[in-house]
Design a protein that fits this description.
399 residues, 20 helices, globular
Length: 399
């Protein structure tokens, strides 16, 4: 029995690839549709939104701008996140551009030896995020049809990634063999950082070439994971996985209709967000909270994109994975608190609290206001306690 387990473990990847090939043949019709949908998604969403940012960030890393940004932001990044100011460039561009620009910049910084291994792994946890264009336009307006929801998801997304960065700063390695003080001599010693009009054509062509390679890589992941989701759906595996998370949904009083979209979103972000927004229930806050979690986590498709980008460096994926799980949980908590505490944000058609509507109508205005105060205060305390528990669990596991 032990020999069998070891044999399966040793050959798990070949077994997976064989099963994947069989699935491609058996479900060729649905896979063809999934491939077309993945290509359309890549061509209409990924390329227009990410390709220009890839080119620009490649060009900027060849100039003195990165050094200047690092010098300016060092007074903020070091005390808050315990990383050098040059990490602020990755943080800002990661927020503006979206997945996986932040990881690409961190990988470049590490390859140029401008950050340590520990700093690079911690930067990955909070600099690789969903972009505002995707959250506001695609999710907020396109899926939920509400600008306020888009801004809410963007705000809690940014707040959650900052929280994760602060948490990881408490677990930084104290003894680093590399001291990341950005001397001009080290930063400009290479010709790569001396962009002039003479070599502008060469640098621009190299930047476009690298950006095309990265965009094609992302497109491959989008298409492949669209096909994987299609095969899992056709083989009924998605339904089995959905049943496994039913106790979690029941614990937090979420509708079971979200089970399958959550699994799809954990595998691939865009498909999952689209399915979650399409679930038609009166408690719309559930759709928004789960969307916040998936936006923070990013899905295994993005995780593998990041893994491929850092493969040329000595950075590992472990901290990134833990950080994205934390970010998804924290973003959903922040979103839940905002929906309950800020008037006008909740789009629920019915009240989702446990108090009966008839009972609420019987209360006078003074009693209702007192109840609302303590109810909101209680939710805030619960959220703070949840964050404290998550922080302590993470601290023990890290140690």
């Amino acid at each position: 029995m032990r020999f069998f387990v070891l044999s399966v473990k040793r050959n798990i990847l070949p077994i997976f690839f064989i099963l994947f090939t069989i699935g491609l043949v058996l479900f060729s019709k649905s896979n063809l549709t999934a491939t077309k949908n993945g290509l359309v998604l890549w061509a209409t969403c990924v390329v227009p939104s990410l390709f220009p940012f890839f080119v620009v960030t490649n060009l900027l890393t060849q100039t003195k701008v990165v050094y200047l940004i690092g010098k300016i932001l060092d007074k903020f990044m070091r005390p808050i996140f315990n990383v050098p100011g040059i990490g602020g460039f990755a943080f800002a561009m990661g927020l503006i551009s979206g997945y996986p620009v932040g990881a690409k910049i961190v990988s470049d910084l590490r390859q140029n030896n401008l950050i340590t291994k520990d700093e690079g792994e911690r930067l990955l946890t909070f600099t690789n995020n969903s972009g505002p264009l995707f959250i506001l336009s695609s999710v907020g307006i396109g899926l939920f049809g509400d600008t306020k929801t888009g801004f809410l998801l963007l705000f809690t997304h940014i707040l959650a990634c900052i929280t994760v960065g602060i948490i990881f700063s408490k677990f930084s390695q104290k003894n680093n063999s590399f001291v990341s003080n950005y001397s001009k001599k080290n930063l400009y010693s290479s010709n790569n950082n001396n962009l002039t009009f003479k070599n502008l054509g060469e640098v621009l062509s190299n930047s476009i070439h690298n950006s095309i390679s990265t965009v094609l890589l992302i497109g491959g992941f989008v298409v492949m994971f669209s096909v994987i989701i299609s095969i899992l759906d056709q083989t009924n595996i998605l339904n089995i996985l959905s049943n496994l998370i039913f106790p979690i949904l029941k614990l937090f009083n979420f509708n079971f209709s979200f089970a399958k979209p959550i699994i799809s979103g954990i595998i691939e972000l865009t498909n999952g967000i689209n399915q979650i927004a399409s679930v038609n229930i009166k408690a719309v806050s559930q759709n928004i909270i789960l969307s916040a979690f998936l936006l923070g986590f990013g899905g295994f498709s993005v995780l593998l994109q990041v893994y491929s980008l850092i493969s040329k460096t000595d950075l590992t994926i472990k901290k990134y994975f833990i950080g994205k799980v934390l970010q998804g949980i924290i973003a959903s908590i922040y979103t839940f608190l905002a929906l309950k505490l800020i008037p006008g944000l909740n789009l629920d058609v019915i009240e989702t609290s446990n108090i009966n509507l008839s009972q609420l109508e019987a209360l006078n205005s003074f009693t209702l206001s007192i109840y609302s105060f303590f109810y909101s205060f209680g939710l805030l305390i619960i959220g703070i306690c949840a964050l404290f528990v998550i922080f302590n669990i993470f601290k023990k596991s890290y140690e």
